[in-house]
């Protein structure tokens, strides 16, 4: 199983990638989802807006877009695009460190690939609870 992190026209600010890869593997295992491949692409607002418009027909800025690329519902092959511009703005807005907000978004995308949704209020509450659970486990809080 391969997990990759790449940056597209933004500075790579992700720390301790080896530890994060191991943690993500554990997250998928804990959620009962097999992981074949996962690729995070860190980019700017403009690039993610293009993706959002082209593939999802949404004309809005967002912090993350998640794609399941595989055909087997039990085996994840995913691509996750993260706008570091949005992450930085949201970190300021919510008064949290950039690193914490970045990991929240990273776990959010992984949870989507594990089958969690966030469209309804109830789904969003569960998603936020799972994000917080994994943030606590990762940062030891």
UniProtKB/TrEMBL annotation:
SUPFAM superfamilies: Metalloproteases ('zincins'), catalytic domain. One of its GO terms (biological process) is rRNA processing. Binds 1 zinc ion. GO terms for molecular function: metalloendopeptidase activity; RNA endonuclease activity; zinc ion binding. Its cofactor is Zn(2+). Its EC number is 3.1.-.-. Zn(2+) binds at residues 108, 112, 118. One of its GO terms (cellular component) is cytoplasm. InterPro entries: MetalPrtase_cat_dom_sf_prd, YbeY. Its main location: cytoplasm. Keywords: Cytoplasm, Endonuclease, Hydrolase, Metal-binding, Nuclease, Ribosome biogenesis, rRNA processing, Zinc. It is found in: Cytoplasm. Belongs to the endoribonuclease YbeY family. Single strand-specific metallo-endoribonuclease involved in late-stage 70S ribosome quality control and in maturation of the 3' terminus of the 16S rRNA. NCBIfam families: rRNA maturation RNase YbeY. This is Endoribonuclease YbeY. The gene is ybeY.
């Amino acid at each position: 199983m391969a997990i990759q992190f790449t940056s597209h026209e933004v500075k790579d600010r992700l720390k301790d990638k080896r530890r994060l890869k191991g943690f993500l593997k554990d997250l998928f295992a804990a959620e009962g989802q097999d992981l074949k491949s996962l690729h995070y692409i860190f980019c700017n607002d403009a690039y993610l807006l293009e993706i959002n418009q082209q593939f999802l027909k949404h004309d809005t800025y967002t912090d993350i877009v998640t794609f399941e690329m595989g055909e087997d519902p039990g085996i994840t092959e995913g691509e996750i695009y993260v706008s570091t511009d949005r992450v930085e703005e949201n970190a300021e807005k919510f008064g949290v460190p950039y690193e914490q907000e970045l990991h929240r978004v990273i776990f959010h995308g992984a949870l989507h690939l594990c089958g969690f949704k966030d469209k309804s209020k109830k789904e969003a509450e569960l998603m936020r609870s799972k994000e917080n659970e994994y943030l606590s486990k990762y940062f030891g809080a």
